Every structure is written in C-alpha cells, then in structure tokens.
Amino acid sequence: MKPGRTPQLRRVERFDAIVVGARVAGASTAMLLARQGLRVVALERSREGSDALSTHALLRPGVVQLGRWGLLDEVAASGAPPVRRTVIHYGDEVAAIDIAARHGVDAFYAPRRTVLDAILARAARAAGAELRFGVPVTGLVRDDDGRVRGVEVRGAGGRRTEMHAPITIGADGRRSLVATAVGAPDDWRGAGAGGVVYAYFAGLEVDGYEWLYRPHVSAALIPTNGGEVNVSATVPAARFAHDVRPDVERGFWRILAEADREVAQRVAAATRTSRWHSFAGQPGYHRRPFGPGWALVGDAGSFMDPTGAHGISSALRDAELLARAIVRAHGAVGEGEALAAYRRSRDDLSARFFQAVDAVASYRWDLASLRAELMAMSVEMGRESEALTLLDRPPALRPAA
What we know:
Blueprint: E1 10-14, E2 17-20, H1 24-35, E3 40-44, H2 60-68, H3 72-77, E4 85-90, E5 93-98, H4 113-127, E6 130-133, E7 137-142, E8 148-154, E9 160-164, E10 167-170, H5 177-182, E11 186-189, E12 194-202, E13 209-214, E14 217-223, E15 228-236, H6 237-244, H7 248-259, H8 261-268, E16 271-272, E17 277-279, E18 285-287, E19 290-291, E20 294-296, E21 302-303, H9 311-330, H10 335-348, H11 351-362, H12 367-390
Helix pairs in contact: 1-4, 1-9, 2-9, 2-12, 7-8, 9-10, 11-12
C-alpha cells in the first residue's frame, strides 16, 4: 500500500443465493428459494414502498401463481376489485367476454404496484429471506476463471461489502446491471414498440378490463385499488416521440379520442387523481438467462411490450421456474443442466406469446389480423396456466421393470 493511503474497509457476507432487485420478480424468487430453506438476500436500490412504472393488470397465469403461493386472498383483501369480464373494442364493434373459471381462477386483479410489491416483500421475509432496500449494487465479484461469485456494495465512507453466493440472480429490470456486466446476449429480439401515457382516474365506471383498438392506436381501462382506474393510451414509439412526448397530457386525450370518442368522454367526466406517467417504448427481447454463477429473471431476462399486459404474470411464472432450477442445482443436479432446463421452459411458454405481442406492438395490423393475434395470446395464456398448475402434481411413478 502506498504511504498515506487509508486502507479500504472490506466486509464479506455469505449466502446461498443473492438476488439483485426486490420488486415483483426479485421478491418472488427470494420467497420461493427461502421457502426451500436457502439463505437468501435480495438487494433493491429503490426505497421500500415506492411505486413503479406499470399498468399492473394481472391475467390468468399471474393470478394462478398468486393463488398457488397462498397470496391471492391478501391481494383481494387489499381492495383491488375482482375483474370478471373483459370488454374488447375492435373499432366500433364491442365484444364482452366473461372470465371463465379455470385453473382455480374465476377473477382477475390489477393491484397497484405499491400493494403487490409490498405483499410479495412480506411473503419473502416471512419465508426467511432478507430484503434490503435503498442498497445499490455497484458491481459483480468474480473468481479468477470469470465465474460470478457475488456482488459488491459500497456504503458510506467508501466501505466495501462483498456478498458471496453460488448463484447471483439479476432481477433488476430492463437496465439490469447483472445482465450488462455478464454481457447476456439476446436470444430473440422484437421489432414492435409502443409508447404509452397513463394516469389514474376516480369516478369512472368500467365493466372489468376494457381494451380499445383502432388502427395505429390502442388504449386500456384497468380498475385497481381505491376505486381508481388506470387509463392508458398507446401509439407506435415513433409517433409517441414526435406527437406525444412534447405534451403528454394533450397527447393522451388525442389518442384516447382516436381509439374511442365515447370512452374518451367517459374518462373526461371522471377526476384525474395522479400525475401523468409515460414510457417511450422499447422493442421486446429475450436474453440468454444464465451463465456460470448467474441467472436472470423478470425484465432483466425477458421483456415484452406492455400492450400484452403480461409483464407481471411472466415475472411470477419465471420466478418459480428459476427457483426450482436453483434448488435442483443446489442438490444433486448440475448447475448448467438445471439452468438450461429453466431456459427451455421459459422459452417454450414465451415464444408464441412474444410473437403475438410483437405483432400487436408493431401497429401494422388491421382489425382482422389483430383478432388473430389476440386469440393466439389467449390460447398461450391457457397453455401457460395449465403448465403452472401441473407443477403442483407429484411426478408420475415409473412402472416396475
């Protein structure tokens, strides 16, 4: 050490798994791993209880997961209204579809992220996971051979804390530090992207989820906690950049009126209760979700355009697929084999849905082709829900030789 230089303080903590991010994907993964007896820490840079950019609709696969994990009653008790009907506006034509009771689900929910994230964080802690908020991860720690063996956190006064574990999980969103640090390549990449602006309104009557489509625009009305409705308006990202971003409020009302003038009048008669939120759009992607000592889950590993309303449901699904793979790798199965199985399962349940969402997000559809893509999404969500419920079944016994 050079003369006059103060030695840098360093501390090392050890876990069975480190999760970078403690939102939907991170808290869920931490909870599931802790329920299997692993010592887990989840590190979240944002403060506990903060909101997140999200239109937060849960479709059947997401509700299936919350029910299987014993958390659905808490979501229902939060005041998020049960949604038992979906209304789709195809231009001037309106189709109302009742939610069928399947896979233990007879209603959908759209809890505010401040509600859902808190429920998942409490469940993770109750399972024995340690969650630390307001803790930004500054980098990964590697072995001499390049294998990830943990993360580094810097605190006040330059104090370094290294956290070591056999697996480090990136659940830190689209701008994932973990994915960037390991150079996770894209397996697939979409071309469509929609720019969205939304706000919350009170005093707005809705008949379940309402989805509005007209060539080159779409919109949604999603009932949530406190009697409020999340109202979003979406256009292709290129149009959003020049026609909405300069004045998001004016752009919102213009898009909503284009989608459906009568619905726009209903919303205008309600009371806006929030500021405007916007997302300029980004093409979807599926990244390679694992490597030596690391794995990705949630938006860190896979992102679909919000028009599919499937981001939370995908995160809840993949949290379980990954947690099961890590538990297997923690036992007798090799890490590479277990995580490769996670990748195959994720991709099998994502590929067709990803294609359909990307087609809708391109806004290069007419109403007939739109119907076909929405039907494909519905079929894939049914297949996904079935696959998740099958996880609860014990493996079939092989017949004696």
